[in-house]
Design a protein that fits this description.
Length: 152
């Protein structure tokens, strides 16, 4: 798994996060990541019209789709590891699981997810809870990801 260092300055943190995700990625992966991160909160500078909780939820989901499972080439959202995304004001709550309880990133991955969510413009804080019920199965994988993995 790629280690991501947290930087409290949102602009520097977003740039640092992008650089660290780029290491070891193919040029196509890097281009897709840049497009996804560039689109998150593109209108965040408009203070006269703050984003709705629905808009913030969409931005958080877009950020989650930039995080890939370290062993499976699918983002954690389409892999079905995200069970709940709830926005309360400018605070995001995320319930997630892992493919197995013995996953080697069980201690570090929720922190990576939390740091990534807090980089979303309009989100001032986040809490990520690792849950094991219900257990993850391949049925959680989105149809698009199943096609990508050759499961259907």
């Amino acid at each position: 798994m790629k280690r991501v260092n947290f930087n409290p300055d949102p602009n520097a943190a977003k740039s640092s996060l992008m650089e660290q995700f780029h290491k070891g990625n193919s040029p196509e992966d890097n281009e897709a990541l840049n497009e996804a991160l560039a689109g998150i909160g593109a209108d965040a500078d408009d203070d006269s019209n703050p984003p709705s909780e629905t808009d913030l939820r969409d931005r958080v989901i877009a950020a989650l789709k930039t995080i890939y499972d370290p062993e499976i080439p699918v983002n954690i959202y389409d892999l079905g590891l995200i069970y709940r995304v709830e926005i309360k004001g400018s605070f995001a709550e995320v319930d997630m699981t892992l493919t197995t309880p013995g996953c080697p990133v069980a201690h570090s991955f929720p922190g990576l997810v939390e740091r990534s969510v807090t980089l979303v413009p309009g989100i001032d804080g986040a809490a990520v809870e690792l849950v094991w019920e219900p257990a993850w199965t391949q049925n959680n994988i989105s149809e698009a990801a199943r096609l990508e993995l050759g499961l259907i």
